[in-house]
Amino acid sequence: MNPARLAKLSASLRTFQPASGQVAGLDALALNPCPSLVYLTGLHFHLMERPVVALFTPDDDPVIILPELEMLKVAGLPVHAFPYGENPAEWQAVFRRAVESLGLDGKRIGVEPRALRLLEFRYLQAAAPAAAFPDASETVSRLRVRKDAGEVAAMRKAVQIAQSALEATLPSIKVGMSEKEIAGELVIQLLRHGSQSEMPFAPIVSGGPNGANPHAGPSDRALQPGDLLVIDWGAACDGYISDLTRTFAVGEVEAEYAKIHHIVQEANAAGRAAAKPGVPCAEVDIAARAVIERAGYGPYFTHRTGHGIGMEGHEDPYMRGDNMQILEPGMAFTVEPGIYLPGKNGVRIEDDVVITETGAECLSDMPREIRVVG
Amino acid sequence: MNPARLAKLSASLRTFQPASGQVAGLDALALNPCPSLVYLTGLHFHLMERPVVALFTPDDDPVIILPELEMLKVAGLPVHAFPYGENPAEWQAVFRRAVESLGLDGKRIGVEPRALRLLEFRYLQAAAPAAAFPDASETVSRLRVRKDAGEVAAMRKAVQIAQSALEATLPSIKVGMSEKEIAGELVIQLLRHGSQSEMPFAPIVSGGPNGANPHAGPSDRALQPGDLLVIDWGAACDGYISDLTRTFAVGEVEAEYAKIHHIVQEANAAGRAAAKPGVPCAEVDIAARAVIERAGYGPYFTHRTGHGIGMEGHEDPYMRGDNMQILEPGMAFTVEPGIYLPGKNGVRIEDDVVITETGAECLSDMPREIRVVG
Hints:
By secondary structure, chain A is of the alpha+beta class.
């Protein structure tokens, strides 16, 4: 339980502003096992077929509905627990008692649609058939979006672990290795260098034409001379993550590939330089994108310039050309422009940045120039 | 795309039987990125803030709504793709066009509540406001629950990788090591022995009183002489997983701890012996539980005896005393009785079993007797 964060949540629930002209304020927030639950309570649960839901209200201790076999996790905590046994036929009644204990039927229960599954939602809805379930993602995001010093320290460590792990992996990368083999070695090095064993995401290791697919998973394709090699990886430390990308040359590469690498490197620098308090997220995207557009590769930069980062790999704020959210000190996000030439190669260079009172701190400092591997 | 599995799905949609007295049959199945989607199509997507939904109907090629930057994943496949750009304001219209292309408004669109998030569901619901969204989990589960020879082979490999990895880890376990350190070393060994880098779940490593919490995450607690040490771990291979548990003695342990270990070992054997085609899942649970109850520890075995296993760690069929589902050849599940003494220690012994034409094959064969580590 984090009393300071719970107090802030209570205030946010009272002042919640819905998207359109509805009543302001929320009577409760319902969370399933997800980063926001960890943020508020420190409680970790597996996301499984047994639903776990915590209900937060402005004035009462949180209520939590959970399997009996998880009860030790909440022992001694200031929560009202509603445990259920192994027979799913009994679960709905437990949800009903929990919702009734807070008098929530007919009330406004905020939810996070990105995290809440239909599983938990349908139990909640059946327990409170007259309740409304507005999207409270922004309310929760506002609490989490400005990282405090402890959170930034954890992210800084996660960046350092990631960088050391990739440096330790690079010497072992050879022509003929598969993307999967490289990814496996990188994960081992991440663990050796101190990452939590639950990785933030599986590393992307994409050579040659696979690199032109920004979200390709590692394949059995063997690394070939002349490939570009995109490595998008991260570590987790104290519950916070890093998310970086560097692109390498496997021996000598065609002139166009070296050129697009250079353009992306300049775009990355321009995006980082645009990051400061008081400017909208859009400016970071526009600054990075302008470099790539001026070089004639605009159509090959097919995604936004970055996303927020913290407990999750993708969270607010998003660096999109249409996002007018204003950057504030403590906001942390990636800057990751790319150029993707279908059927040929791809380049992406990604850093993790935190807005400070006067500008931005780049947490990552691994060389961005094209380096030869293999 | 897996045409044979898609053909079976089409037949299942036509014959879908709802829980209560509603109309039979489904007009479509909607899946987000999840194991069932991989099972039917081989397609992997990150689960993120950008919604991805595939719609399967009995007669048409699948429709898939996805970000433009994921389009390479479906290039050349027999699917109708509805890509969207980076601005969320445009996504709803793309969902509407996709749903309209199949004429699904007002129809019955099955969903998997355990996987589908409110994010995807609300886009679907707004795109087809007159549609019904019945729970189709059982329909999909029926397709997946009987594993074919290729699937069993992958699970067998995942078991072997897990066993070799733990054997390689055991010599390094010493008094004074933290649970987290042991878990880190085990994950490294899992990767060295060939597990996919995306683990099925983070290993549970619980010493002493932590072992009395069946779902504890690894902590900073240092291993102490006299502890029992529960290790619940698994590997992933070719998209299929293993899930095993063994309990060790850290040096000499109190007589009661050795005794409960022996009881659990007998309960595990009884559960495995009860597994055969034609009997209900309940019999496996009852057989294992009877051993523990006879020994007077019934109240300390606080969970069901096992769960199905395959692409997921928890799936059908579940070994619960009230589950009358009949075991059939190809069904795969865990047998994992335990005894948990709050504040003291816990024991769990877990194996992976596949039902055959005549009985059951236990995929795991690592010694189950209490072994001393540290």
